[in-house]
Protein: Anoctamin
Organism: Callorhinchus milii
Amino acid sequence: MNLSSICNTFKIGLLFDNGGTVFFSVFMSLWAVTFLEYWKRKSVVLADKWDCLEFEGSKERSRPEFTATAPMTIKNPVTGIEEPYFPNGDRIQRVISSTMVILLMIAVVFICLVSIILYRSIVSILMYKTGNSIFMVLASKIASITGSIVNLLVILLLAQVYTSLAHFLTRWEMHRTQTMYEDAFIVKVFIFQFVNFYSSPLYIAFFKGRFIGYPGHYGSLLGVTNEDCGAGGCMIQLAQELLVIMVGKQIINNVQEFVIPKLKGWLQKHKLRSIDKKELSGAEQVPWVKDYELLVCEGLFDEYLEMVLQFGFITIFVAAFPLAPLFALLNNWIEIRLDASKFVCEYRRPIVERAQDIGIWFNILEVITHLAVISNAFLIAFTSDFLPRLYYYYTHDNNMTGYVNFTLSYAPHKFLQQNNSMCRYKDFRDQHGYLTLTYWNLLAVRLGFVIVFEHVVFFIGRMIDVLVPDVPESVEIKLKREHYLAKQALAENQALGQALFEQAENQNEFSSETSERKTSTDQHNLPPIPEDKQL
């Protein structure tokens, strides 16, 4: 391939792969930490407002499904009341079985990923073999974009199948409270969805193009030559993959949220009205009949999952796709209005359920935030060309002239003799195929950058965590005041109880003394016994 034919691709790649990417990645990592800290404060304020700060554990009741299907009862050591019980040993066995099913589904995801990789490689090879100059130049792009579209369709299909399976497995595990049930279900679905949605971008970011070998010694997978990143490097292909998966998912979800509720609502109204037209015709305008014809609200799980996955896209891969936050902002602007219309006009008013916080979703967001720091550090160090350019700039008198030649190696002599043509490829190897000293120097620079980047971001994030209290001062004062008043009321109640107890004892003593005096007085006032009656 002629280098002059791919100059435009390199120029487009520089829009994402430049020095500003480092600072933007640091900013997004710190933004994620700050966002979570202030969300904790907001969550505490809302929980205090609705009196839910100590809801979990102490006030939460057993699930009706658990109560109905529990095989035995056991006495609660705190309340002394018989409660439904499911043996922990049996639950552990079921959890292990569920874990095996999850691992099996994850294996299916990896099989699909390998299939997509083979698809891209085969399409690229077939297009190169056509001999058409246009197809040869666009082969990598066409294979990458079509592979991303196929991957998106497979992802959405597997997500629907696994969500239904996760519902069944979580019910089978017999969790006592609704919080425990939801946490178990969320963990199952998120682990699978994480692998499902992020496996392909992670492969392109950290594995694609690493095992291609060099001329004369190319690597292969199942007999097919391993795919390379193509012109412009892996960063631009990763940006294409994220654009297709993230934005494509947003478009499909928004269409589903608009079309499916309206379609389901129309079908339900048509079904209810066809049951008894005469009965409903007179009550057609009654508000509660209209409300009954609406759809039953199925909860907020899908909304949470959508936002958490989007949070992962805009933090874990922001170094490769800096436009992700902009697309997320536009999606949220549309999402808020679609959800408002859906919950107000298409669904019945849901039954109120108390909750202390957003549950395990917050822990998942914290894990994603930490993964984002690590991911962006390795993206900049190993996938981006930022550090090689920086290394070349400072080792060649602050000059970038000749950088392209610096990144290219000559093919081995045997390969040149067999093909009778000059060939250069992107790597740091000598003409015997061995890695050069430049490769190892760059590797040291990359590892050093990862360590410095992670430590700096984690340190600043920890400082933000320390400086921003989890509980606002006003709420903390209010809680301390309530605790003080509760202790004072308890002390007064105990004092009052003690006083009433002492008063009752005094009354009992007074009553007993009065009765004794009355008895003795009555004995003194008895008439004397006549002599003839005495013994």
Notes: Strands lie at 72-75, 82-85, 213-214, 217-218, 220-221, 224-225, 408-410, 424-426. Residues 11 and 238 are 16 Å apart (CA to CA).
